[in-house]
Specification:
The structure is a single chain. It is built from four helices and 14 strands. The chain has 232 residues and is an alpha+beta fold. It has one domain (16-231). Strand 9 and strand 10 (144-150) form a beta hairpin. The N and C termini lie far apart (117 Å).
Length: 232
């Protein structure tokens, strides 16, 4: 006996044209999904990189501000500074960009455990801590910014006197000093700014990949002005 398929079963399949259209729609949807996934990944990576750079930048500015506020003498773009007729210098590697060298009060004797606090004495409007000051220098080597603090109370080979990396992404600084004279006092003010180049931005992101371009650093500059209070 010959059997016949029902009309609903005969109409249940897809024609070649329908398969081609469905495949095309699926391909477009997958391409859009993959493109969106890549964009999200790039955005996440760029945002993460941006905040790492900003964190380095803020930390570095905090170091600069702290050291300058307590500085007894300041040398700009140098690895040495003179204080009360004595030259103080740190060994900065060859090829490094020198930013700043300061001498700061020697508040504590770090050679003892625990450290011994030095109480200052004041004579003729001069504060004295009874020990040679501590030398601090900042320099850029490669893409890393270093801070080296040398305490004369410690042995030369003490690891506490070794350079410390304080930032890997922040590398562009503008440091200037300015003398402001008014009827009462003469103030010495150091102006510092720092920038970094984001690896991605919504507009002109390709240019931002070049870390040395000015356009790459627009919008990432922070700065401060610090009065050198201990120089009077």
């Amino acid at each position: 006996m010959k059997k016949h398929l029902s009309r609903s079963l005969l109409q249940g399949g897809m024609s070649i044209a329908e398969i081609i259209v469905a495949t095309a729609v699926f391909s477009i949807a997958m391409a859009a999904m993959i493109s969106a996934s890549i964009s999200l990944q790039m955005s996440f990576s760029a945002t993460d990189d941006y905040f790492l750079g900003e964190g380095d930048q803020l930390r570095v500015m905090d170091y600069f501000n702290t050291d300058l506020r307590r500085a007894l003498a300041v040398g700009l773009n140098s690895n040495s500074v003179a204080y009360r007729g004595v030259a103080y210098s740190n060994n900065v590697p060859s090829g490094a960009t020198k930013y700043l060298t300061v001498v700061i009060p020697n508040y504590k004797d770090e050679s003892t455990s625990p450290a011994t606090v030095r109480f200052p004495t004041v004579a003729s409007d001069v504060t004295n801590y009874g020990a040679a000051p501590v030398k601090v220098s900042y320099y850029l080597l490669g893409s890393t910014l270093y801070r080296v603090e040398v305490d004369p109370d410690l042995a030369p080979g003490d690891k506490r006197n070794s350079p410390k990396s304080i930032a890997d992404n922040v590398s562009d600084f503008n440091i200037t000093d300015k003398i402001v004279t008014n009827p009462l006092i003469t103030e010495t003010v150091v102006s510092i700014s720092a920038t970094f180049a984001p690896k991605y931005s919504r507009s002109g992101w390709a240019a931002s990949l070049a870390s040395n371009t000015t356009a790459a650093r627009v919008g990432t500059t922070i700065g401060s002005k610090i009065q050198l209070r201990n120089l009077f």
